[in-house]
Amino acid sequence: MSATMFGKIPEGASPQPEQFKVQFDEEKLNNLKQLIRLSPVAKDCYENQNRDQGFGVTRQWMLDTKEYWEKQFDWRQVEENINSTPQFMQRINDDGYEFKIHFCGLFSNRADAVPIMLLHGWPGSFLEFLHILDLLKKRYTPDDLPYHIICPSLPGYALSTQPPLDRNWGIADTARIMHKLMLSLGFQSYMVQGGDIGSYVSRSIAATYSECKAMHLNFCMMPKPEDVPDTDLEPVERDAIERSKFFVETATAYGRMHAQRPATIGHMLSSSPLALLAWIGEKFLEWTDQDLPLDMVLADITLYWLCESFPTSIYTYREDFDVPPRKGFYHSQEGLYVDKPIGYSYFPYELIAIPKAWAATTGNLVWFKRHDKGGHFAALERPQELLQDIEDFVKVAWK
């Protein structure tokens, strides 16, 4: 199917976004392969032999994945898949600083199509949503697609411009740019959907801008509200809370590093593709309830490397770990209550699987679905379920 089929921008976009193809120079790909080949893997030690100990990725996984990445992984095939969906670059002016924001998506010819922005997190990217976009392309034509689907790369990620060098940048800043993106495409009302950091950006948009009419989340990290008793929780939710406590106690050091020493970790993971592989690969291995295809994992890590994204993608962590005083994690912070329709998809193996009763304290929760499978990367792990949830929520929330 030609990418141009769903690539007609609605009237009213200003400026008109540029359509393009994602294609990296052959020299850059060859350099990456050479760096993979020359990068050593750590020697055998007790900690890297036994994954069950929870010490991180094993040496054997690194050796096997290094060989596959160098000799078999086909980035050009990834590009072909990316380019089967319309790709755009939009110019956004923000107080004299011009961003070029990359996004992909599907545009409908219907006058009543609902604009929906899908927002990724870390260590994800717009690649997370390609499966959902493929499902929509198979189900609809441009003439009957009920939605406009926009999947941006957040500032500092992939092909989008990074935040300015001369000032701090936060979630509210990214939310402002994403809001401006939707207005620039001619939309005077729209919905947002997000997981991980994308859920933070979604909440900031929904709480701040009147043009955003509804919000759907599959991640809602927050502490226990004082006025919600444990008796309001389902057994599966209580089990998930215990797993979440274990994650917070044993597996959040990476986030503190992102927040407290971003420059240092940025240098480290920009110096070797194998360092980046270990750091991000660990998350795809541990944050899901099923094994993701290795090509899927390597596509994301390769995109980070080719776009030099890592050091400019971790700025949001300061608002979770290193900005005192704060009242809880992002979704329960003051000023972010959302009085518009909220939908929440609960995946039981999410890192921090927040109960329905807790999420309901953060806004006008009008739609909820509890799944029995799925982890942190819902769009990758359970694309059909997440898409169905979004479609069901639209029916309730979009009036």
From TrEMBL:
It comes from the Eukaryota. InterPro entries: AB_hydrolase_fold (IPR029058), Epox_hydrolase-like (IPR000639), Epoxide_hydro_N (IPR010497), Epoxide_hydrolase (IPR016292). GO terms for molecular function: epoxide hydrolase activity. Keywords: Hydrolase. Residues 18-129 form the Epoxide hydrolase N-terminal domain. One of its GO terms (biological process) is epoxide metabolic process. Signal peptide: none annotated. SUPFAM superfamilies: alpha/beta-Hydrolases (SSF53474). It holds the Pfam family EHN. The active site is at 196 (nucleophile), 317 (proton donor), 376 (proton acceptor). Belongs to the peptidase S33 family. This is Alpha/beta-hydrolase. It comes from Polyplosphaeria fusca.
